[in-house]
């Protein structure tokens, strides 16, 4: 649930602070067209104030047609473009203002807000640092700087920037909200919730604060309360895109999947068919068992953002549910790009095995990833490599080395953290089914491919005999992994 700069971050973008004539006319009216441009600009500004955005955009365009270097029209058209969901165009317009007036504080602030929308946070920081050099007491600049730092994952620095803003203006609502968001990212949820509660006590009709309070409650898994926050935010601002998106995510977390799909569809119908919305709608479809719809939604997300990691991974997992391994395994290789991927450890200097190169007389290093259960499941493919003439070395979790040392075809087991030996090839364990061309009908299913060491088996048998003295068959089941996931539930 990403936080985007709200309207209060814009300089002269809201009707309560945008006043005609407040900005000095910086164009040289003596030049031909300048006076005409100024007249169009005055009309555009009035329409902009009234939120008549299509009309304002047309009028700004007429001003710039009369005088292409009319700085105020360039600037305010940029603000309007950002407000109407076109931040890339907005950044170009506002940046052109700074080519003419590099010390324009309002343009520096609005460029930074636009760059934050584009997630170009380093560039936003540069603009804000320039602004603060010119105006060290600019509270909005310090707040925007905190938002940029949060976008870069520098949450301690973000908190410090928000605190600095609050020393300049105690109780500043946007600074308090930003501080709450920084605390949330630091997993200090109780403090974050207190911060947002304080903001809303002082200013109840604050949609950004309701939205961000909902995000904190979502993180705390208090979904009913989170949903109430998003509903209140939308009551205050009916077309608040971020709150609509967060509401849909909350419905999905509550396992109200039909309602979640409807909420995502409403966002898409309103013109917000971005990768995140399409990907999350796919997840809701998947939980309804509508796998074809889910995959179509994941594919649409990939078209919207070809580099969207989770859209590829989610389609892979959905393909697995359908038994479509041929499409699933290549897509599943996208996991290497996921921030939470557990494909760590030193890079091995051997080439990755492609599934085609001969393994006869070669050494291949298999590397474990993700959780213990994945290693236990996917180690079953190691004997197939040994049957091709490979010497198989398995790197795995220290707690599994004893168990894995009894796996057929594995010549050596190395715990994570120890030096890796030289090898001719390496492969990640979860890539093996795809590399080996495994289908639903050819999954190795031999019984007891793993066996406990005899000493431990004897000890545990004696323990069970003492605690559960019965002649009946005793079966132990691992019934769930991460129990908080909807799939596990």
From TrEMBL:
It holds the Pfam family TPR_19. Transmembrane segments: none annotated. Residues 1-30 are annotated as: Disordered. The keyword Repeat applies. Keywords: Repeat, TPR repeat. The keyword Repeat applies. TPR repeats lie at residues 207-240, 275-308. This is Uncharacterized protein. It comes from Candidatus Dactylopiibacterium carminicum.
